[in-house]
Amino acid sequence: MPRTRKTGEGGLYYDKNRDLWIASVDIGFDKDGKRKQKRVSSRSQTIARKKLDALKLEIDNHGSPLGNQTVAEWGVSWLDDFKHKKPQTYRTYASLLKTWVNPIIGRKNLKEVRPSDLKRIYDSMRAAGKSTSTSRKVHQMLSGLFESARKDRLVSYNVVKDVTPPSAAKSARNAFTREQTAAIIHASSMFRDGTKWAVSLKAGIRQGERLGATVDAVDLRTGLFMVKWSLVEGNYDHGCGGTCSAKAAGHCPQKYLLVPDGMDYRVLKGRLMLVPPKSGEARTFPLTVELYAHLEKHLAQMGDRPNPFGLLWPAEDGSPMTARQDQAEWRALLQVAGIDHPEATTHWARHTAISEMTSSGAADRTIGEIVGHKSPGVTGRYQHTSNLDALEALNRAEGRLQIES
Predict the structure, then answer these.
(1) Per-residue model confidence as pLDDT tens digits over 212-226
(2) Angle at Cα 109 formed by Cα 108 and Cα 114, nearest 5°?
(3) Which candidate among 93, 113, 205, 380 keeps its CA 20 to 30 Å from the CA of 245?
């Protein structure tokens, strides 16, 4: 009498027509009572048997076989969870997957990825001259991707945890000298919205925070500046159900704008929207006497220009200024100031502010509160810096920029 094979035991046979060794294992029954099987195959009997043993081990350990999705396939599914979160996060992760991950391991099954595969990604990024901060961002992204795959029983463990992340760069951030900073601030007075560069160079606000600042961010009564919005470009999604021929969702005739779930936001124009700053929380910093005077004058002169969105530094026609327009104005400002640094992005202003506050002796915690840094070591309590401490730090840094004539 033939032996009855139990669920999960498996069998191996040779298919002469296909010239394949096929291993199969029962994994239970479907809702109609029909037997469900999982099959693996190989032209080698030895390899087919190894695949069968691995399949049986997966069933023993997890109760069912792990999935067969490739990294690229799971990446698409995983990214869907970010569509309704911060727009820039989705766009950044999609770009990193497309540019660095999928070309190297995109076709590999998730459960077959090894630490050496991830190292190949980081090596290729290093060879291409990418910064270690970008490599660390890929590492962080992959950790999240494989952790979600583990929770979905597509892999048995998170392989990224076995890989040491790329080392953080030790080099100093790019920043202007005190003389250069003073020259830029002086030149900014020749620009209609030059106050935004003074605020950026002294208080270190980010580009999105600068472009998303609203008129009510400045409280002349209390002498405080509130960073509560950041301007970002939202992402479009197909509204056609996949029936249009457009590859990019932005070209779909029925496209719609993805808006963040559970997050305050304001759609301004087209894809441009306001979302909370990077830290997720609004922050305030006190205005020095000089910044207060500049902003008071700026607000008084805003009445004769269109400003339907209530922005502090809008474009000429009152619409939100894009990152590209902002960068172009920055280039023009550096040229007027006589600064020969064509590689200098607007982020140099932030680095300069942090550098000046550090050199003036301000505590890291105080600087972090002003510029919106959150220490990765903070897990619970978050100590609040008093406005007096922050004002002292800003005044000391500002004093360093006063170049004697």
Answers:
(1) 999 999 999 999 999
(2) 75
(3) 93
